[in-house]
Amino acid sequence: MIENGDLRDVALAISAFKSDSQVLNLLTRAFAAEQPQFGAVIVVDSLGSGRIERAVEENGWAVRYINSPTNLGSAGNLDLRLRTAAETGLKWCLAVNHDGEVTPAKAAKLVAHASSGASCQPIITIGVSAP
Question: Least C-beta-crowded within 10 Å: which of 10, 21, 72, 107?
């Protein structure tokens, strides 16, 4: 269970494709000094410009940056983010698209809810015909 916004068991996995500014905004918020820190931060980029990688180095952010030489597409990018997150050995992965919104406080609330054992009900049932 997460307490006091502790995110050490959470990998934040961000997708990137021609979205440098948006990804850099997410990283800036994720690494803000007043925020609890994620256990790992992963960025999977397709055909990256190099801007994200340079910013990671310049800011000293602990980010596993993967730049694919081909466009992975949404599903391929998510697959690589989840496989990379699994390699960290952390308990949770928060996968966020480049245009998503995430703060450590919101992430902590999500993990606290998931840790509580509360169940979720499906919103859409696949394979059921509409009346």
Answer: 21
- Classify 95 as helix, strand or coil: strand
- What digits encode the pLDDT tens for the residues 63-80? 999 999 999 999 999 999
Q: What is the DSSP letter of 98?
A: T
> 17-27: string of b/e by CB count within 10 Å (b at 16+)?
bebbeebbebb
Q: What is the residue type of 48?
A: G
Copy the structure tokens of residue 53: 């990688």
Distance CA 59, CA 64 (A): 14
Residue (of 68, 1, 8) closest to 41 by Cα position? 8
Closest CA to 48 of 81, 1, 15: 15
Among residues 112, 119, 97, which one has the least CA distance to residue 9? 112
CATH number of 7-115: 3.40.50.970, 3.90.550.10, 3.30.70.1350, 3.90.470.20?
3.90.550.10
